Amino acid sequence: MRKVVVVTGANSGIGLALCERLLSKDDQIRLCLACRNLQRAENARMALASSHPSADISVVQIDVGSVKSVLQGAKELKERYKRIDHLYLNAGIMPNPRICFKAFITGLFSRNVISMFATGEGLLTQEDKVTEDGLQEVFETNVFGHYILIKEIEPLLCNVHNPSQVIWTSSSNARRSAFSLTDYQHSQGQESYSSSKYATDLLSVALNKHYNKQGMYSSVVCPGLVMTNLTYGILPPFFWMFIMPIMWLIRLFTNSFTISPYNGAEALLWLFSRKTESLDSRAKYHSCTSGLGNNYVQSYKMDVDEESSDVLYRKLLDLEKQIRKKITPENK
Ligand SMILES: NC(=O)C1=CN([C@@H]2O[C@H](COP(=O)(O)OP(=O)(O)OC[C@H]3O[C@@H](n4cnc5c(N)ncnc54)[C@H](OP(=O)(O)O)[C@@H]3O)[C@@H](O)[C@H]2O)C=CC1
Ligand SMILES: CC(C)=CCC[C@@H](C)[C@H]1CC[C@H]2C3=C(CC[C@]12C)[C@@]1(C)CCC(=O)C[C@@H]1CC3
């Protein structure tokens, strides 16, 4: 049976590099690019098809920042496929990022300098906004839209005899102290990205608790620091080009400067061929690149506890109910 793989945010950056690498590994897969912009998705599909002419590559329109769009996209997936073997939840945003230069300079002269480069902790703030669904945009895009997608296509993912994998692109920037269960959408603070990635880590643990017995396994990946549209929103491309020699130098001290989308996709690709029984529910699988440019995967225990993960999961179930009522009032 040909494996079905769905990738959100597949038209650029890490998502696109993952698609390219998946097809190079196994061009018998049925690959579906789940993207919000059909033109950009079609361009990506054509680029992938030109290097893999015999591959089965399709597109589905899903804007994970809109519940209506997720419901429509999920309906199309259910019409098209009987099951989904690998669901990569990769789409993500970091809107209006700002660097705190004071923290950067202070960090440079502290003993935490390596960790600062690896995680970006304390260096960035973002400006979030509220979506048409009435949710914080970063939370809805990075977490809730994907959560709704899983719920909608649950029958395609849950099969005890043939388990499926859900794989989240999280981040080393996920931080417990940026997240609060009383403000899990992060409407109050300025670190919505960090908060959303921590929520991703908590949610993945909860999904494993609730769905492993039904044949669905969730894992979390950190791609490292990668040059993509997301990082070009933090500093312009010419600046990153300018400091590239410094980045290669930093690579000698931290393996998290993966830099290219190809390298960043390493752990995502690695998980594709893992047996579900071998996965650790609480591990974050990191794409790593050595000073000499060699790629490998390292797993680290996540800083999450079961109680917080349960509480967040219950809150998401409640929010799901509310939003579904709002969108389809006849279901009241
Ligand atoms: N770059 C890095 O250093 C790191 C990135 N990550 C994570 O990796 C993931 C991929 O990002 P990256 O490749 O870097 O950045 P890109 O901006 O290149 O890719 C993000 C992808 O997500 C899509 N996307 C954004 N918003 C939505 C939406 N509402 N609905 C559907 N798709 C959407 C984008 O589509 P469109 O083209 O239409 O905008 C794009 O395809 C993200 O989750 C990010 O948080 C994690 C750690 C480090
Ligand atoms: C000399 C040099 C490399 C300067 C750049 C300083 C900062 C802009 C970066 C240092 C660590 C980076 C980092 C990210 C963004 C850019 C930095 C803060 C991320 C937060 C980007 C998105 C992620 O998901 C994780 C990254 C961690 C490291």
CA radius of gyration is: 19 Å
CATH class: Alpha Beta
**Form type:** globular
Task: Report the uncertain regions.
Answer: none
CATH fourth-tier homologous superfamily: NAD(P)-binding Rossmann-like Domain
Structural class: alpha/beta
**Please, how many domains?**
1
| Fraction in helix | 40-55%
Count of separate DSSP helical elements: 14
Reading the helices and strands in chain order gives EHEHEHEEHHEHHEHEHHHHHEEH
Write the CATH architecture name.
3-Layer(aba) Sandwich
The profile of the biggest β sheet is: 8 strands, mixed
The termini sit apart by 41 Å
Strand order of the largest sheet: 3-2-1-4-7-8-9-10
Q: In CATH terms, what is the fold-level topology? A: Rossmann fold
Ligands and ions found: NADPH dihydro-nicotinamide-adenine-dinucleotide phosphate, the ligand CC(C)=CCC[C@@H](C)[C@H]1CC[C@H]2C3=C(CC[C@]12C)[C@@]1(C)CCC(=O)C[C@@H]1CC3
Number of strands: 10
Content of β-strand? 15-25%
How would you explain this protein's 3D organization?
It contains 14 helices and ten strands. The chain is α/β, with parallel strands linked by helices. It has one domain: NAD(P)-binding Rossmann-like Domain (Rossmann fold, 3-Layer(aba) Sandwich), CATH 3.40.50.720. The strands form two sheets. It has an eight-stranded mixed sheet, with helices on both faces. The longest helix has 22 residues. The radius of gyration is 19 Å and the shape is globular. Bound molecules: NADPH dihydro-nicotinamide-adenine-dinucleotide phosphate and ligand LLCNDLXC. The site of NADPH dihydro-nicotinamide-adenine-dinucleotide phosphate (NDP) has 29 residues, from helix 1 and helix 9. It is found in: Endoplasmic reticulum membrane. It is a single-pass membrane protein. This is 3-keto-steroid reductase/17-beta-hydroxysteroid dehydrogenase 7. One of its GO terms (molecular function) is estradiol 17-beta-dehydrogenase [NAD(P)+] activity.
